[in-house]
Every structure is written in C-alpha cells, then in structure tokens.
Amino acid sequence: MKKFSIKDFVMITLGIFLVAFGLEYFHIPNNIAAGGVSGLAIIINNFIPALPVGIIILILNVILFAVAFLTLGGGFGAKTLYASFGLSGIMWIMETFFTPVVLSEDLFINAAVGALIIGTGMAMVFNYGASTGGTDILAKILNKYFHVEIGKSLLAVDFVIGITGLATFGITAGLYALLCIVANGTLIDRLIDGFNTSKELMIISKREEQIIRFIIEELDKSCTVLNGYGGYTSEDIQILYVILSRREYIRLRSYIKEIDPKAFISVNEVHEVLGEGFMDIKL
C-alpha cells in the first residue's frame, strides 16, 4: 500500500465530492452517460430505477476489482480503493438525504457544467495518486491481453458506453454524452498540468553566492550550480539552475532585482516535477 497522508485524504475526498456533485446534480438527472462506470450506472438505472446510481457504481466497482484481482493482481493501492468506494458512499448520501434535483432545464448547461465539475474532481483525484477504478481497470485488462495502449483502451470503453447511452436516451443526450467524454479527457489533462506547473530558472549573476543563500535560507530550496563560459566576455561563469513554485519565483525575482538588476534570468514552465521538495516520485 502506498503512503496515504492527511493532505492526500483531504484532496481526494474533495475531488470525489466534486465528481459526485457533478453527476448527481447535472449528468444523472439529464441522462448524460458520459463514459466510465458512472455512465454505465446511469444506463442501468434507466432499466432498474429501484437501484440508485451510487449503489450501482458500488456493485460495478466490486465486480471490476474482483476481475482485476484475478487478471492483474492486487496492486490497487489504498488511495484508489478509498476513492472508488468513497465516491459511491458520497453519492449514496446525496441520493438518500438530499434528493438531487435538476438545477437547470438547459441540456447544454447541464452537460458543460457537469463536465467541468467532474473533470476538476477527477483531476484532483489523479493528481494525488488515486483513481476511481471503473473503466481504468477494463483499459488495463485490454492492454495486458490485447496489447492496446491504455489511453486508446480507455477511450474505446468510454465511447462504447457513450454509444449505448445514445441508443438508450436518444440522440440529443447521447451526443452530449460523447462530447463530454472528449472534453473530460482534455480538461483533466490540462488541469493536472495546471496543478503541477512550476518555474524552471537559469540565473547568471555576479551575486550568485547571495542568491544561493537566499534560495536555501529564505525559500528552503536548493539549486544546482553549473560551470559555463561566456561567449562574448570569454570569462568563466556560474549558472544557477533551480525549480520553484510560482510564488517562490516571484520572491526570488524581486530579490535579484534588488541586489543585481543586470542579472540574466531565463524562465520556463515545467508541468511535472518529481523528487525531494516536490511531488513524491513514488506516486
């Protein structure tokens, strides 16, 4: 089992709450089966209305985890198990105690806002090393036994569910569901990039020792010192390489401006940084 910190617990819980809210108040009341186990559960609920969608998701996840255990082994991790069954639990609470109602009569608004909320929640769950199980498991099985790439497998499974939704609920709701499947994948990727964005800096300054001390003592970070050679000055120089959060970058930039306005700073955005001081490389 992977380590499960309090921060992970809080962020994953918030993520699955957003997914549950988007499903219960936007997609489920409008029969938008936008892929995944949740989409399949919406379709099944249409034929067995006595079973709430949250309970159907729970049943499907239990079946899928059992199949995965037999075919892929048991390496799911505590986070994925928590997110998968926690989502069903939150949906059951919403369905039992809050009786979700349609918030808008406009199908486009329901599809778009629901996709935005669900995509944001899923991105938070993925960003903290978990997943909600479901069709991820089917994609891994297809990858193992039929050598289909996981991304393509996941998209294929979701599109089959979307097409089934189209046949069940009609062309309008079905096409919106297919659009949500495409939009969700893109949105999740972009949001994960946004969560993990950092600033990569290369600094050339005659006050490098002061800058290094500021990075270590004030920002509680480290940096790498590279040896370089000035093409114009023909002098040996030292280049500082450091990766910082946006807020830390602003503080360092202000400090360098004060002590060496003629310093050279190159700044790039990086979308994932793993290792000490950043995201755990074991996630």
Quick take:
The protein has 283 residues and is an alpha+beta fold. The chain has helices at residues 6-27, 36-47, 53-71, 78-98, 107-127, 135-146, 150-169, 171-196, 208-217, 246-259; strands at residues 198-204, 224-229, 236-244, 264-270. The chain is 63% helix and 10% strand.
Task: Describe what you observe in this structure.
- This protein has 283 residues and is α+β, with helices and mostly antiparallel strands.
- The protein has two domains: 6-195, no CATH class; 197-270, Alpha-Beta Plaits (2-Layer Sandwich).
- 63% of the residues lie in helices and 10% in strands.
- It has ten helices and four strands, in the order H-H-H-H-H-H-H-H-E-H-E-E-H-E.
- Strands 2-3-1-4 form a four-stranded antiparallel β-sheet.
- Helix 2 (36-47) crosses helix 3 (53-71) and helix 3 packs parallel to helix 6 (135-146).
- The longest helix is centred in the middle third of the chain and has 26 residues, at 171-196.
- The mean pLDDT is 85.
